[in-house]
Amino acid sequence: MGVPLRRRSGRSVYRESTPAYAVAGVVESVWTGVVGDSRPLRVFPDGCVDLVWDGRRLDAVTTVRGVLRHELPSVDWTVGLRLRCGAGGAVLGLPMTELAAGATPLRDLWSARARRAESRLAECGTPGEARSVLEALVTDRLRDIEPDGLSVAAARALRAPGARADKVAAELGVSERGLRRHVRHDVGVGPKELQRVLRFHRFLTRLEAVVQDGSSLADVAAEVGYADQSHLGRECRRLAGVSPGALVRSWTGRNVPDRDGPPRRRS
Questions:
Q1: What is the pTM of this model?
Q2: By Cβ atoms counted within 10 A, which residue in 40, 111, 157, 208 is the most buried?
Q3: Other CB atoms closer than 10 Å to residue 119's CB: what's the count?
Q4: Domain ranges of the chain
């Protein structure tokens, strides 16, 4: 049995860990959040799907098409499994283009299997127990499917700055059209759009250096593959709803407080 995490009023604590071997082929990480007070957050796109237990229901959450505004519930803790980018369609069992952005109750996709998991999760007293239930759920699901791994491999290749879809397709032994079909099914967008999301995610992973070390946004923009700082600015507003400077000022990790409300439409 795991040790309960202490709740800290007014702030959340987020921890990631390595998944069990049985699910590591399709699960990138397991995470636990100690919530604190209820409040709105922005969750930024990374191309992945998270299976999230928030103490009330089990959801499949996708953010690939842009920033997700999410009301963090006031519960002691939450637990999630982050599926690898490119594994979502195969694991969930539907084209990701058909899954609405945001949270979809897993019971709507997996019916009785998800309801049984929710019943077991509701009885869990610690995040460690809930993690075991989620990993067992995905292990059970993997007995019914055979993920071919092509979209996961494609997403991994498309992460590299300067990667080209035609070369990635050739390396994986498919046509560009075939690559586009696989990626759209398993991620929800085509290779070009996925590259934009993955490049923005590379920028997010470097924000800590900007916040703590004073690295310049221009240097980081060039490092992760943007043409210049203006290019970064346009993409940041498109995918995060704020400017790079505003993002730096509010940065607390993967999610940031949503103090500004919905982004204004540009005329």
A1: 0.85
A2: 157
A3: 10
A4: 13-142, 150-244
DSSP code string of 210-241: HHHH---HHHHHHHHT-SSHHHHHHHHHHHHS
pLDDT digits (tens, 9 = 90+) for 200-223: 999 988 887 777 777 788 888 999
Q: Match domain 150-244 to its CATH number in 3.40.50.2300, 1.10.10.60, 3.20.20.370, 3.20.10.10.
A: 1.10.10.60
Minimal CA–CA distance to 244: which of 212, 206, 213?
A: 206
Residue 253, Ramachandran bin (φ over 0: left; ψ between -120 and 50: alpha; else beta) = left
Instruction: Find residue 83's DSSP bridge partners.
Output: 27, 49
Helix axes 229-240, 217-224, angle to 10 degrees: 80
User: Following DSSP, what letter does each residue of 32-75 receive, concatenated?
Assistant: EEE--S-EEEEE---S-EEEEE-SS-EEEEE-TTS-EEEEE---
